[in-house]
Specification:
Blueprint: H1 12-26, H2 33-53, H3 57-77
Helix pairs in contact: 1-2, 2-3
């Protein structure tokens, strides 16, 4: 079982799936705020897991940025900041 203190290890498949999602999103023009929220949730989860496994300070900064993007997406859904 995983927890925030012991997240599931990142696999090459996790990264490949995420990058496929990024490519697919780039070609779409019909993304909704809900689509964006789901994407930023997935991104924040992946980046947090990477940062958990890495001593690199850049990994921690990237994870913090992903969480900030998720917070902004949530705010847009709630009408809190356009």
């Amino acid at each position: 079982m995983t927890s925030p203190q012991h997240p599931r290890p990142v696999t090459a498949s996790d990264i490949a799936d995420f990058l496929t999602d990024v490519q697919t999103r780039a070609a779409r023009t019909d993304l909704t705020p809900t689509d964006n929220l789901a994407f930023f949730q997935r991104k924040a989860d992946l980046m947090d897991r990477i940062a958990h496994e890495s001593p690199d300070p850049d990994a921690i900064r990237v994870a913090a940025n992903a969480r900030a993007q998720l917070t902004a997406a949530r705010a847009r859904i709630n009408g809190e900041g356009f």
